[in-house]
């Protein structure tokens, strides 16, 4: 039960961080579309890696 709550809380925090980062990129970067695209891909990639790491960490069960 604690493991499940921890997993979903961490996952929600990662999602909120990715969305906040994307909003910050698209509001404060300026007018250059190339750098916005690169930054967006980097944030989505980092969020995916973070979620994968958390999924592997919480996916293992102890017998």
What can you see in these coordinates?
- With 63 residues, the chain is mainly alpha-helical.
- The chain contains 2 helices and no strands.
- It has helices at 2-28, 33-59.
Topology:
Layout: H1 2-28, H2 33-59
Short synopsis of the structure:
The chain contains 2 helices and no strands. With 63 residues, it is mostly helical. Helix 1 (2-28) packs antiparallel against helix 2 (33-59).
Q: What is the 3D shape? A: elongated
Put simply, the count of helices is: 2
Please give the radius of gyration in angstroms. Answer: 15 Å
Q: Would you tell me the overall average pLDDT?
A: 77
Secondary structural class: mainly alpha
Distance between the termini: 15 Å
Extract low-pLDDT stretches.
none
Strands, count: 0
Element-by-element helix/strand order: HH
How much helix is in the residues?
over 70%
Which short descriptors sum up this protein?
single chain, elongated, 63 residues
């Amino acid at each position: 039960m604690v493991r499940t709550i921890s997993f979903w809380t961490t996952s929600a925090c990662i999602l909120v961080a990715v969305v906040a980062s994307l909003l910050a990129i698209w509001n404060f970067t300026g007018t250059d579309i190339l750098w916005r695209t690169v930054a967006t891909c980097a944030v989505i990639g980092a969020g995916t890696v973070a979620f994968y790491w958390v999924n592997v960490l919480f996916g293992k069960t102890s017998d």
